[in-house]
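One example given next:
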Amino acid sequence: MLFNSLQFGLFFPAVVLLYLIIPRNLRCLWLLLASYFFYMGWNPKYALLILTSTVITWMSGLWMGRAGDRKKLVVAASFVLNLSILFVFKYFDFLLANVNGLLGAMHLTVVKKPFDVLLPVGISFYTFQALGYTMDVYRGTIQAERDFLRYALFVSFFPQLVAGPIERSGNLLTQIRELPRKKLWDSDRIAGGLILMLWGLFQKMVIVDRIAVLVDEVFNNYQMHGWFGLSLGAIAFALQIYCDFASYSTIAIGAALVMDVRLMENFDTPYFSRSVSEFWRRWHISLSSWFRDYLYIPMGGSRCSKWRRYRNLMVTFLVSGLWHGASWTYVVWGGIHGLYQVLGYELKGLRDRVNQRLHTRTDCFSYKLGQVLVTFFLTDLAWIFFRAPSLTDAFLYIRRMFTRLDFWSLFNGELYCLGLERQEMNILCLSLVLLLLVDLIRYFKRERLDVFLKQQNLWFRWGVLLFLIGAVAVFGIYGPGYDAKQFIYFQF
């Protein structure tokens, strides 16, 4: 069930309406049933997987209170079992393909595939959320949850179930425990949640599903394009994946807010970052902080020798890349970001000396803008590996982008020959201007759109809301014959 589908448009109001009027002691049970119904909309069989992960981690939390010195064994067993399930469904085919490639190169008999499985939607998200709970109980940062229904709702809460944010038990589970005591009706809070959902739908239906046409045209036919088309395709994909993932997170946060549940922020204007390390503090915050707290810091973090810190960074980012998908393109993408950070540390002294020699002002707008542009260029270059179907395609794409210079394409109308007609391209450009304005408000005022609009005059607030509603209704990609596009991160 997609957020941008008619089914969800009927499902969500029904869930909220009953949630607001049923007895308080039934709220958790109702949301749990709704969450499993939501997840089973993709494949009912895979509800058994999320239930299995839930039972394993719930029992692990309880057993740790009785295990004494054997707590580490309980944690290890929980991680091994959950990661084994994740491996079978997400990485087994990848491993088998690489083993067969190696055997084929050695002229040996390849291994036949023993079974076919489909990747369960959201498996990486709920697995990491459940494992985070196990570690939190082990560290003593949260008490083990004895109520199975409450814990099962923590793992499966439908707004953020299939694509995050990856919640922490200290935030979401604590709120779930308080649900029976909450006064749910608050018109301002509900309005704020609906505003966020509307903004997320605008990003997805007006921007993402339109810009995807351009991205697919360029990446699927990169051999036919030069510098202009390939550069535009790379920039377009950077915007596509940002709006796609941010839109899901925004709708999830808004939907949860309607039900008086506060989810963590997942994006904070990442393309305004002035360094790659800052980018990762602003991009997919729930995942990057998960890897920081449960992998990078336990390995030693930055409180160790320089080379061990670099090793920790590279391992963390390589694992992060593998988390995104069972392909070498994702692993290389993660490795590139790890290398960016290592080089950033190594070159800091050189940058400072060059700035001092050239008497460069580092506190002015132009210097900060230059940092933003360089950071965007580096992250956008890495995104090519993320989007390309293979490493060979990624390298050929980059090579062609830098060697097939066609500056005349800036003026010959090629912009309107990249899959979008003139009118569609103009709608996209105007939508991106609005996206830029909203992100600027977030960057400089540190306020989400719902908070910002609440502070404005009534005429302005309703003008913006009616414009967004009209834009989604008139310019959104939907209608007869339209197959609602999945969010990109569903495949992870």
User: Anything to note?
Assistant: The radius of gyration is 24 Å. The chain has a mean pLDDT of 90. The chain is about 70% helix and 0% strand. Residues 416 and 422 are 6 Å apart (CA to CA).
